[in-house]
Amino acid sequence: MNALDMPQLLALAAALGWASGVRLYLVVLLVGLAGYLGWMPLPAGLQLLAHPLVLGVSGFMVFVEFFADKIPGLDSIWDMVHTVIRIPAGAALAAGVFGADHAAMALVAALLGGGFAATAHAAKATTRAAINTSPEPFSNVGASLVEDTAVPVGLWLAVAHPLAFGLLFVAVLALSVWLIGKSWRFLRSLFGRLARIFSGRPDPGVVSAFRLKKNPPGDSSNVQENPDRQ
């Protein structure tokens, strides 16, 4: 097996950082298996992932996360707990691509990898929280399966086609930022309405809908007489 070249190493570092924010344990398992089975030459900083004990633990956690991530409500709790795990792990895995022999590159990779992990995690957590407001579970399961597929595909592209991965990665980052803003605005509006309801204050949305139902468009009662009109 030939060692990975610089474009592959850069793409792999970015992929590890981003994917760790979505499916950390799956990342550790897939990369470790690739090294253990000889599918890919692991950089020195990542060879520990191929240790049988690491493979066993990560495999067990992949099994647990696969089901936990598909139960509405539980998936958001899982995301909340893993906020303090996924981001530093993404930084560490990205840095491990270059290792101690390239300290400057490893530091840059850690900073960027942590940022990519944080972006992916925030997009995942806010989007799934917004999806969980729907009473049906199918959209939740569908989103989880998309994430299950995106991680191995992203890791494979990073090594097999680093240029294609780079182009797709930019688009995914832009989509993630858009999803964070869209989901956060939705959740903030929802929590604001719930706070008004539980505090006893009237909900403007409900009041407006009641007034519209009482006086539908075109109803003459909606037109107020101008007292100055002759």
Structure report:
This protein is mainly α and 230 residues long. It contains 8 helices and no strands. The protein has helices at residues 6-36, 52-68, 74-81, 83-96, 103-131, 138-160, 162-198, 204-214. The protein starts with 5 loop residues before the first helix and ends in a 16-residue tail after the last helix. The relative contact order is 0.13.
Give the structure's gist in a few sentences.
With 230 residues, the protein is an all-alpha fold. It has helices spanning 6-36, 52-68, 74-81, 83-96, 103-131, 138-160, 162-198, 204-214.
Helix-strand layout with pairing:
Blueprint: H1 6-36, H2 52-68, H3 74-81, H4 83-96, H5 103-131, H6 138-160, H7 162-198, H8 204-214
Helix pairs in contact: 1-2, 1-4, 1-5, 1-6, 1-7, 3-5, 4-5, 5-7, 6-7
Helix content: over 70%
Helices and strands, in order, run as: HHHHHHHH
By secondary-structure content and strand pairing, the structural class works out as mainly alpha
Q: Which percent range describes the beta-strand content?
A: under 5%
| Biggest sheet architecture | none
Q: What separation lies between the terminal Cα atoms?
A: 93 Å
Q: Cα-atom Rg, whole angstroms?
A: 24 Å
Number of domain modules: 1
Features:
74% helix, mainly alpha, 230 residues
